[in-house]
User: What shape does this take?
Amino acid sequence: MTGHVVCFGEMLLRLSPPGARLMVQAQSLDMVVGGAEANVAAALAALGHETRMVTLLPATPLGDKARAELGAAGVDTRFVARGAGRMGLYFMEPGAGLRPSSITYDRARSAFALADAGAFDFAGALDRAALLHLSGITPALGPNGVALIRAAVSAAQDAGVPICLDGNYRAQLWESWDSDPRSVLTELVSAATVLIGNHRDISLLLGKTFSGDGAERRREAVDAAFAAFPNLELVASTARHVVSSDHHRIAARVDTRASKHQTAEIDVSGIVDRIGTGDAYAAGVLHQFLRGGDAQTMAECGLALAALKHSLPGDFCLIGGGELAAFSTEGGDVRR
Assistant: This one.
């Protein structure tokens, strides 16, 4: 597929105590730029794809920082709107050992969450695009977030651009207002060509419980999704078993209507940063999807990029194509 990838969503600042401290122990906070859709844009740019970010940032030094880091990652920022208001934030207490990481959102009434759809040049950004990438986080922000993502979907449909939707279910956000996530997400998946989501996401959409275990349960769910959503061509997911905060076991799966592939489970230990790894998986799948890869190639590429992202601090995955091609589950010594 030729053309650039457009990503639409809110950018955030992550604030965390250094080391493995709790917030009550913190004397300072580390700050990094991220956001689910921006993470995908940065990861695809690092792999050589032309990417554009559509978002709105406040006209403040914090907004300047977010835009600068996005541009430094190789993402086209010409369609980043600016306006009054505040940046969305989230605070993360990094986990250690058997204590998991914990996230608290502070993004209510952010500049993006209050933006009008007219602030975004969707038509310009989508001109000759290959794909629009969205996530379920935008509608979870509230009624205005629902209106914004509907505007993005409508613009993509008008331009004939296929849509990738990462479900990215965030219970804290949906439960903070009088929401109906099932109906909203069902509407969005109906317009999507690619869904990043697992059997639990499909269960939420269809109101069904799927029987069986492991790969059998996941294929049953995917078949039900393909039957319910005629536009859907591909479903990609991961399965993660957490041993401790710095040791996970992960497998990946990609299903098309005609084929499927599930990888073996790999050990990912010595984890530096868990955040953004799902976005790296999505980017790895899309990297091969855009190149016409088969289910096996997409699943293995997504898993490799996700595994590598665990070794990087920050939200962005800046792994290039050479390092991705050299990935080995056994790691290795210094390359000289």
